[in-house]
Amino acid sequence: MSTQAPFMRTDLGPSSPLGVLDRIGWWGALVMIAIALVYTLFMLLSSRGAPKHGGPSHPDAPLLIVILMPCLNEAEVIGASVRRLTSIPDPGLRIMVIDDGSDDDTAQAAARAGDERVEVVRRQPPRARLGKGEALNDALSIVRSRCTSVSSSRVVVGVMDADGRLDPHAIGEVRKAFAPQEVGAVQMGVRINNRFGSLLARMQDMEFVIFTEVFQRGRRRVRSVGMGGNAQFVRLSALDALGPRPWTRSLTEDFDLGIRLNATSWTNEFWPSASVHQQGVTNMRRLVRQRTRWFQGNLQALHLLRSVAREQRGLGRADTLWQILTPYLLLTGSLLTLSFLISMATAGVAAVLRWEQSWMWLVGAYVIAFGPALIYAWIYWRIERSEGLGLIRAVAYSHLFVLYGLLPSLYGWRAVARELTGRTGWAKTAREAEPDQAAQAQPSHTAAVTGPGGQVPAGSPVPGNLPPPDGRAREAPLTAPRAGGAGIPIPTGSSPNDLNDTAIIGRSTHRAASNLTNEETR
Question: What is the SS3 assignment for 30-48?
């Protein structure tokens, strides 16, 4: 006589509480999957082709481009980033490195790598280490104080990370992108420069490529392009529309900025013709810490729902609401992932016990999970094949990319826990040393770095064509740029060091070039 154990076999009657919950869960999961697939398909179709801008266009209008580079303990990478920027022969380009109270030689490394177009701004306690948004806002005050004679629509403020490497033609592409006068902000593509030596970095590169090539391109058509923390460029007049301090204290101030800009009359644009190359995280623990911060910052954007619903229209409003609600959808989706894993375990036990069952559901699950990834593999291969990537390997990467996409199930709930407990500290992601920095040639001029009272720290070179700083902040406004040469904008009546007054923001008693008021420096 034999008995069959009813292992994990529960009769869920249609009217029983468990049966009702089962049907609700089943239909809920089906609706979520359908919405995600339809949204992805819509973005895939929308990403083909570029939008048409209305209104006036001035492709030859001169622009002054000021790049802000906030950094904290970035001595390992800042030198190469500054050298890459100064290698761009554009007289209308200025670079402002913002040392946010570093403990290492970040300021000195930036100064040694710079030329007369580079300025190093040193923030000191209690102004230092208040977040990236605060560092950018203080630097923007300096830019505004020196642009009093320049139309704010002809000044473009860029933001780059300390490890960012712009394509050599990127600044020229910025000028093209801002030709339509309705464009207030431009986000460029992002690539991971160490993708060839780390599988984890490769997944991050694929993530950025898919995000920009599918979703950012698609959002161009519905006017909901988002801003990132690296290679974002914004007209000064568009920043003015957001108030005196446009960047918030959110952990993802770039995400907030993009959403609020979309709610104005300005247009956000994604420009795929140039990219910034940044360093990927090669350690899983550091990656989880980084993404926890990003996820928590996205959770903090919930307060923007009302303004988006009130001020945006059409598909742009719908997609921006989707962007704000995405972290909550990912948290809900993590429960589906858990349910799928339980189903897999149950099916495995049933197979061991030789219970009769159908495996067709597994085929459907594969198509749903990996079908879009196969399309992503094709897109990624088309872009990366020039670097030697084969189609079969791209398909293999796409399968790993699906597993990589399950990480929000881990760091998402960690971010929720941090937000609920009020832990909002900024956990900076450590950079890895780049061995090619020392081999790069040093420029003939360097940017000056001053300490409190205007004294030059030991070992900080001063440009040979500039006098040593004497502690007096020179509040010289930027003169208006004009077209010169072959369409290259050159500031009228000014030298490249018009933006070179080094500012000390902190406890220093002298007036800095930032022209901050007493209220702003508290």
Answer: HHHHHHHHHHHHHHHHHCC
